């Protein structure tokens, strides 16, 4: 089998371009251009109350639907057979039917997670036709976006991506970061978020705001967070009082 790194496989007459590119040529030359790693635009997307469609009813679909639910999305799952674990997810719209393009109506983004390359290709093509962002699991050449390996500590989100070159390495790097970014970052960021609101309300000078923000993000506050909530609250209060912006009521709010 010959391998080409450049050039496009001609699309046969009557074939849908997007679906053909997603499936790839059925045999013969393997066109690797579409599967080479790409440079992606990193973005944190707010999907709160927006419809997100997961096509597929198995284990992978469960993972994708769960992550979207955690982000506040309105999730629709489409599959002729849906696993019991998916049925157990609270707040998911279940469409137990064969995939059809009408099931994408109103979707902000779509994840195709079936075990059928043909169905995944149709989903990808239909999304392209509608201008809807689509991810086909394990097929980066059929994705408008890819999903990184994610570490969460409360409000902290650390995402690692290799641009599709090696998801295994991305996962390994994320596991290393778990040791560096421990559970203390969760309460730390909750406290910093509350302090930020207070500072914005009480301080007009942007230069002073930045100085306070830098002090609040210091290693000293992280050390306090690792000692517990009481130590963290005291450390935040000391910073605010240093700038003369915390009275008793505001300090209690923090």
CATH topology of one domain: Rossmann fold
Largest sheet: 5 strands, parallel
| Shape field | elongated
Assembly state of the chains shown: single chain
End-to-end distance: 65 Å
N to C succession of SSEs: EHEEHEHEEHEEEHHHHHH
Backbone structural class: alpha/beta
Helix content: 40-55%
- What low-confidence regions span 5 or more consecutive residues with pLDDT below 50? 1-15, 25-33, 249-253
Q: Please state how the strands of the largest beta sheet are arranged side by side.
A: 5-4-3-6-7
Tally of contiguous helical segments = 10
> What is the CA-atom radius of gyration, in angstroms?
24 Å
Q: Averaging pLDDT over every residue, what do you get?
A: 86
Number of strands: 9
State the CATH class of one domain: Alpha Beta
Named CATH architecture of one domain: 3-Layer(aba) Sandwich
Looking at CATH, the homologous superfamily of one domain is NAD(P)-binding Rossmann-like Domain
**Per DSSP, what share of the residues sits in E-state strands of 2 or more residues?**
5-15%
Structural overview:
The strands form 3 sheets. A 5-stranded parallel beta sheet has the order 5-4-3-6-7, sandwiched between helices. It has a two-stranded parallel ribbon with strand order 1-2. Strands 8-9 form a two-stranded antiparallel sheet. By secondary structure, the protein is α/β, with parallel strands linked by helices. The chain starts with a strand and ends with a helix. The protein contains 10 helices and 9 strands. The longest helix has 18 residues.
């Amino acid at each position: 089998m010959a391998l080409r790194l450049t050039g496009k496989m001609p699309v046969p007459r009557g074939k849908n371009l997007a679906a053909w590119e997603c499936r790839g040529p059925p045999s013969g030359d393997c066109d690797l251009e579409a599967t080479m790693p790409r440079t992606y635009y990193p973005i944190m997307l707010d999907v709160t109350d927006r419809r997100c469609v997961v096509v597929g009813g198995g284990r992978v679909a469960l993972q994708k639907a769960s992550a979207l639910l955690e982000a506040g999305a309105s999730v629709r799952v489409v599959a002729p057979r849906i696993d019991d674990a998916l049925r157990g997810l609270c707040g998911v719209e279940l469409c137990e039917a064969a995939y059809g393009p009408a099931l994408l109506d109103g979707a902000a983004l779509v994840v195709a997670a079936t075990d059928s390359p043909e169905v995944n290709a149709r989903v990808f093509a239909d999304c392209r036709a509608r201008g809807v962002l689509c991810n086909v699991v394990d097929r980066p050449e059929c994705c408008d976006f890819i999903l990184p390996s994610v570490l969460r500590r409360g409000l902290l989100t650390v995402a690692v991506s290799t641009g599709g070159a090696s998801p295994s390495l991305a996962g390994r790097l994320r596991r290393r970061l778990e040791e560096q970014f421990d559970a203390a970052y969760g309460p730390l960021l909750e406290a910093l978020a509350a302090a930020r609101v207070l500072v914005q309300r009480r301080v007009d000078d942007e230069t002073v705001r930045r100085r306070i923000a830098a002090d609040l993000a210091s290693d000293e506050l992280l050390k306090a967070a690792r000692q517990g909530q009481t130590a963290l609250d005291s450390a935040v209060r000391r910073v605010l009082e240093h700038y003369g912006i915390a009275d008793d009521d505001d300090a209690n709010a923090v």
